[in-house]
TrEMBL record:
Top-rank taxon, per record: Eukaryota
Species name: Macrosiphum euphorbiae (potato aphid)
Protein known as: Me10
């Protein structure tokens, strides 16, 4: 059983999300330039205000797409990064049997017990 196909699949999701981010970034630059051009033409008296408003609306739509693509990228990296960690941590156990929250609870319980032991009365030897 190999984890390689899973790693490749997750990597391709990250790569696709990055490509989408790059594409939206280019669209954002284009829409920003269009808004700048429309504002200049409006002040020069060449277009009416509705052209500026249309350009602003397009820019806002592209910004919304950018946020969605960014969330998609973060989601893809969150799936990709643990795959590598699980494989390198223990190659014989690709998936942990214990939940991370259970490990966290055990650590808190151990810390609580250590604190209680530290606060208890010291034992006197030979008394």
């Amino acid at each position: 059983q190999s984890i390689q196909p899973l790693i490749d699949q997750d990597y391709m999701k990250v790569k696709a999300a990055l490509y989408d981010l790059g594409e939206v970034g280019m669209n954002l630059m284009d829409d920003s330039q269009t808004l700048n051009d429309m504002q200049r033409e409006y002040f020069a008296g060449k277009v009416d205000y509705s052209a500026v408003e249309r350009a602003r609306n397009e820019l806002n739509k592209t910004k919304n797409k950018l946020f969605l693509k960014l969330i998609k990228y973060i989601w893809a990296t969150n799936e990709f990064e643990p795959t590598i960690n699980y494989q390198t941590a223990d190659p014989h156990k690709l998936y942990k049997t214990m939940d991370d929250l259970e490990n966290y609870k055990d650590s808190i319980d151990d810390m609580h017990a250590d604190l209680l032991n530290a606060m208890s009365q010291p034992t006197v030897v030979g008394a």
